[in-house]
Design goal:
Blueprint: E1 6-13, H1 18-32, E2 35-40, E3 50-56, H2 58-71, E4 76-82, H3 86-91, E5 95-97
Antiparallel strand pairs: 1-3, 1-4, 2-3, 4-5
Length: 110
Amino acid sequence: MAKIKSFHAHVYFDADTVDQARSLCEQAAAQFDVEMGRVHERPVGPHPMWSCQLACTPDQFAALLPWLALNRDGLIVFAHPETGDNLADHRDHAIWLGTGLDLNLSIFDT
């Protein structure tokens, strides 16, 4: 069985919701002491929308995910564990808050 080293939560947004997403991520980073990545105003990696990553430990994630569920205010959040198997983490172990979207998983082809 794979061991979860950490989690990523990706907050998705567009031009109309960029400020809302930035505020949500800044609040999460401050409240849960998680690492906030760059606010990408273009699709990056497998992500089909603009996004900002929140990186955290499993313990932090246990508190962060319910908070995101209650505070995302319509934003889509894609979360996944980091086990070392990128394809499985993004495809098989995904957690969606809001509408699930198709990821570009071809970047994980070997």
